[in-house]
Design a protein that fits this description.
alpha/beta, OB fold (Dihydrolipoamide Acetyltransferase, E2P), binds calcium ion, 2 domains, 478 residues, single chain, 19% strand, Rossmann fold, 5-stranded mixed β-barrel
């Protein structure tokens, strides 16, 4: 009896203190304290918190401590952002609030969304914390001029078929064009991290492959986020899940069996994790340490000569979208790619730490390139990722943003080879150390032509016709 009475008194005291907190004593907190494992103690309390608002085109809205985090292709640390409860989103318009530094007042709540709860199994309970606004945001500082509002870009008007832009290659129909396939992939991690630029990268590349190079829709497989096209420009074939990947691989296996083996162009734009080493990063930001790299269970990272390149021996990771098991190790990714019976592979890898995927994907007849080295972040704007957009500009022969001509064909044989596209993208990219590998040893360089790499980089995504040899075209890819 006495026990029960003290319990009652205790619960009365607890609820009183919550009420007192709620009335008038709104607590201003640091985002990192709110979004910690101790955050649970503030649930149902009204709190105030400062940060930058990010408003994505699908309505996903969150407060982040530093806008720079949204330019990096590695998942934002859990304590660096908090999602605004979906019921409150109509208080926040993109035009007015995106990028503004604000003070928010709201109640801390736990998401009951099934997808969030599933994802929380790996991300931890703090990932479920949401802010349910009780007041409109108070703008402390307007969006800095030049801050782009993230959006899905319209299709580019600059992409034209190759044959129209180069009459010398108009005779390509005389030749049998080799079979060409592509996988365009982005997972995106979760709603707050799935930047619209990932779709913009895929859309631009899809358009260039189809319109300029003549790839057929049936031979371009898009594995993207939740499996839904965000702006109806191009179809998404599979969601970024393990099942989506398995289906994509078996689709291409069947397709190559029925219509013939050929080259595979693999593009990945996504978040990536690994070991960050400030001393090896071109753009200094944050501090060194393991940022989501995984223990190398099959010990392949230690195999010489890679073992001495990467003294940490960690597996790099890319991501699915909203899965309770959200990581794709480099080994798993290489496993899927290696099941496809291609003749040649070109891989263009955009994620942070993507240089660390090259060792895993190594092999003969493979041209592998990445935006970043194994130990640094890769970077993008609100619209596109830097390396990806410059690489695609090289293939397009025009720059997406300016419409100005781009001539990456330094050998003047009328085709842009993969090595030339890499060198053009690298020359434009001041944020990271892009990597390149084509001699099959799995060790990449940022300067093909020096050392062993660069010798097999003449491959191009067209039909292989070159104009250099007068009196007849060669078709070396056949
Ligand atoms: Ca491994
Ligand atoms: Ca590694
Ligand atoms: Ca690796
Ligand atoms: Ca090499």
């Amino acid at each position: 009896m006495k026990n029960l009475k003290s319990k009652l008194l205790l619960s009365l005291a607890v609820s009183l203190s919550v009420v007192m907190m709620t009335i008038g004593q709104e607590k201003e907190m640091e985002l990192s304290a709110l979004k910690s494992d101790k955050g649970r103690q503030y649930i149902d309390q009204i709190v105030k918190v400062k940060g930058f608002l990010v408003v994505l085109p699908d309505g996903t809205t969150y407060l982040v401590d530093d806008l720079t985090r949204t330019e990096i292709n590695t998942p934002m640390p859990m304590a660096s952002y908090i999602v605004i409860d979906s019921a409150n989103r109509n208080r926040i318009t993109r035009e007015k609030y995106h990028g503004a530094y604000v003070l928010l007042t709201g109640k801390l709540v736990l998401s009951r969304d099934r997808v969030d709860m599933d994802l929380a199994r790996t991300l931890g309970e703090a990932s479920l914390l949401r802010l349910s606004l009780t007041q409109a945001p108070q703008v402390l500082r307007e969006r800095r001029s030049g801050t782009e509002i993230p959006r899905y870009l319209p299709e580019s008007r600059s992409v034209a078929p190759l044959s129209q832009s180069n009459s010398a290659l108009g005779k390509r129909s005389l030749y049998v064009c080799p079979r060409r396939y592509a996988i365009l992939f982005s997972g995106g991690y979760n709603a707050a991290n799935a930047h619209p630029r990932y779709w913009n990268d895929i859309q631009y590349l899809y358009q260039v492959l189809r319109t300029r190079y003549g790839y057929s829709d049936q031979d371009i497989v898009v594995i993207y986020k939740d499996g839904i096209t965000p702006n109806s420009s191009y179809p998404v074939d599979y969601p970024a899940t393990a099942a989506g990947w398995t289906s994509a691989v078996s689709y291409l296996q069947n397709r190559m069996t029925t219509t013939g083996r050929g080259s595979l162009f693999f593009f990945a734009t996504n978040h990536g994790s690994g070991y960050y080493d400030l001393a090896q990063a071109k753009t200094a930001y944050g501090s060194s340490g393991n940022q989501g790299g995984l223990v190398d269970s099959n010990n392949d990272e230690a195999i010489p000569p890679h073992g001495s390149v990467d003294p940490q021996h960690l597996d790099e990771v890319v991501y699915f979208y909203n899965q309770s098991s959200n990581t794709i190790t480099d080994d798993q990714l290489a496993g899927w790619i290696n099941q496809i019976p291609f003749k040649q592979l070109v891989a263009v890898l955009e994620p942070c730490f993507s240089g660390g995927l090259i060792w895993d994907l190594r092999g003969p007849n493979r041209i592998l390139m990445s935006a970043a080295n194994e130990f640094e972040y890769s970077w993008g704007s609100a619209s596109n990722d830097f390396f990806a957009v410059y690489f695609t500009d090289a293939l397009n022969g025009k720059a997406l943003y300016t419409g100005l001509p781009v001539n990456a064909d330094t050998s003047q044989d009328c085709v842009v080879s993969m090595k030339e596209a890499f060198l053009y993208a690298k020359s434009m990219d001041s944020y990271e150390y892009p990597q390149y590998e084509d001699n099959g040893d799995g060790i990449s360089t940022t300067t093909p032509g020096v050392g062993g790499d660069g010798i097999n980089g003449d491959f191009d995504l067209g039909c292989g016709l070159r104009c250099a040899q007068q009196g007849g075209f060669s078709n070396p890819t056949e």
